[in-house]
Amino acid sequence: MSAAATTAGIGKRSELGFASAVILTVFWLLPIAILVMNALKTPKEFLLGSGLDLPTSFNLFGNLARAWAKGLGSGFVNSLIYGIVASVSAVILAALAAYGIVRLRIPRGLFWFLFIYSGTVFPFQMYLIPLFNMYLDTGLYDTRLGMIGFYVAITIPFCTFVMRGFFLTVPWQIQEAAALDGAGSWTTFWRIMMPMARAPLILLVLIQFTWVWNDLLFGLVLSKSDDVRPIMVALVGMQGVYGASDGPSVIAATLIGGAPTLILFLALQRYFIRGLSLGVGGR
Amino acid sequence: MMASTAYPASALTAQTRSARLLQRAQPFLYVLPAALFVGFFLIYPMVVTLWRSLTRSDGITPAVFIGLDNFRALFVDPHFLLSLKNTLIWTVASVILPVGLGLTLALILNRVRWAGFFKATIYLPATISAAAVGILFTFVFAYDNGALNGFLRGVGLGGLATRWLFEAPLNTFSMIAAYTWQQTGLNLMLFLVGLQGLSTEPIEAATLDGCTGFGLVRRIIVPMLMPFIVIATLLAVVNGFKVFDLIWVMTQGGPGRSSETLAVTMYREGFILFNQGYSAAIAVVISIAALGFSYFYLRSVLEQESHT
Predict the structure, then answer these.
(1) CA-angle at A57, arms to A51 and A58, nearest 5°
(2) Domain for residue B284, yes or no?
């Protein structure tokens, strides 16, 4: 409503504005279009020609098959596991903690909240070296368990922040009614609170899956073998080894690696934009 | 359970006692798993980094306490100073370009048809990871068969074709261009949210007074958007200051160490050169700066929330 009024206030639809929006959008799409085009070429065609030459044949599936075998496949599967397991676990653990803090009134609740929330305050660089040493000492280095453990930990604080905000809004009568019916805190949590919290839970799983999927830094530091390293590390590794000799397969792999988060966004645009106003980026 | 074996004579009171104990322990059972994860994986490493920054350590031989020597060494280290300078370039550029462009676009898109399509397109790159964007733009900027040089040669400006990622400081600006491509959409969305929330009376009043077009934007709308501009700017500063993925993918901080930022220097010192103490000191410097920016960011977010 107010947007429409603003539009009227500024004046008539601006043709100049429209033209510049078209130009900028073309400019924005151009890199993707050119890269898709190059993902179709043969390695030789790519190497000898210019990036702007049109492909002479369709080799996307061949390029993808080579990329899949060279590390895209294992990275894709690894990150799918990490993203799903870590985001779901973190959201559940964070919901439990927020429930304990807000609804069960843990003594010194603010301390416990700030303790957990402090995990979002510091730049990642503060964790890297001791984490690497610790992982080497405990045998967690280069294991799937180690990757999942860290991804769960890094995503808990933001989830706790959001879930705490949610539980603060739930009326107390609901909990009292459940207690009168003889429901313990565990039953109340799973049967009453979690179903009510469906919207923020889904939003958090999406945000955190995207975060884990897009992570490069911790994958670089905490893993090395094909069986463990997440997708972004696998892609960067491929670029380093095959970037010069087999560009099309690296480009195709990168487009595939970027696709899941893009699809998630397109499918759930509404939720993401709501999430934007809720705390930009998060973790 | 322990209590009931300790007091077998009065089973009933023991039961209520253990029930009460359980009742009191209950909230902790909910909070502890999350707290343990955070404590083990985040807080403990953070404390160790603080300690490491005061030591000379290579991760193998025992660390030697050297006080603030690492920090003193940092500020005479040419690699660190160049890295600091690059980081400042990144920080300033990531405010001027993605935030400035995002604001301009939001003002334009607020009054053109097909705005939804334009919005989604500009936002599209923000959904892809920085690492993926880095790989894709490495191919755009490639010398022999890159799209950019291909275009320049195609339109007869072949003389301008250059090694975009191999000459400092050009490589930093090339990477900032890729960063702008990715980040503008995020700022655009933020400003559109801000524009939706503006009250219409001042705008209508100004229009009646004959204030239109650019003058209206500059004198009325931009001042009203100021809280959002401050938030977007501080967020861009925090993120620009910590940028790592894009640089690591596109130049690894090279050639030489010419395009490193603090996050890249920290990684190189810690994981390639194994100067763990020195690297930890850089991490502490990054943290202090980031915490400072975050403080102002949170303050303006909270102020904004208390207004609405």
Answers:
(1) 95
(2) yes
3-class SS string, chain A:
CHHHHHHHHHCCCCHHHHHHHHHHHHHHHHHHHHHHHHHCCCHHHHHHCCCCCCCCCCCHHHHHHHHHHHHHHHHHHHHHHHHHHHHHHHHHHHHHHHHHHHCCCCCCHHHHHHHHHHHHCCCCHHHHHHHHHHHHHHCCCCCHHHHHHHHHHHHHHHHHHHHHHHHHHCCHHHHHHHHHCCCCHHHHHHHHHHHHCHHHHHHHHHHHHHHHHHCCHHHHHHCCCCCCCCHHHHHHHHHHHHCCCCHHHHHHHHHHHHHHHHHHHHHCHHHHHHHHHHCCCCC
- HSE (CB half, 13 Å, CA atoms) of B291? 13
**DSSP 8-state class, residue B125:** G
CB-based contact B120 A269, cutoff 8 Å: yes
B86 lies in a domain? Answer: yes
Which CATH number fits the domain that encloses residue B176?
1.10.3720.10
Cα end-to-end distance, chain B, whole Å: 52
Test the A interface: residue of B70, B111, B278 with most A CBs within 10 Å: B111
Domain annotation covers residue B46: no
3-state secondary structure B15-72: HHHHHHHHHHHHHHHHHHHHHHHHHHHHHHHHHHHHHHCCEECCCCCCCEECCCHHHH
Q: What are the residues facing B55 on neighbouring strands?
A: B65
Task: For residue B252, give its domain range.
Answer: 78-307
Q: Is residue B71 part of a domain?
A: no
- Per the CB < 8 Å rule, is B291 touching A97? no
ipTM, 2 decimals? 0.86
pLDDT class for B160, splitting at 50, 70, 90?
confident
* Full set of structural domains in chain A with CATH: 61-278 (1.10.3720.10)
Count chain A–chain B contacts defined by CB atoms under 8 A: 322
Q: Quote the pTM value.
A: 0.87
Interface of B with A in 184-223 (CB under 8 A): 186, 189-190, 193, 195-200, 203-204, 206-207, 212-213, 216-217, 221
Lowest mean pLDDT among A93-107, A210-224, B190-204: B190-204
Q: Does B59 touch chain A (CB under 8 A)?
A: yes
Domain count, chain B: 1
Distance CA A169, CA A160 (A): 14
Q: What's the burial of B6, exposed, middle or buried (CB within 10 Å: 0-12/13-18/19+)? A: exposed
Asked if A232 and B132 count as a contact pair (C-beta separation under 8 A), the reply is yes
Residue B308 pLDDT level (bands cut at 50, 70, 90): low
Between vectors from CA B45 to CA B41 and to CA B49, what angle results, nearest 5°? 160
CB contact under 8 A, B34 and A97: yes
Q: Could you tell me the two tokens for B27? A: 């909230």
The token pair at A37 is 């085009």
Rounded CA separation B191/B28 (Å): 42
Q: Which of B12-21, B104-113, B265-274 has the lowest mean pLDDT?
A: B12-21
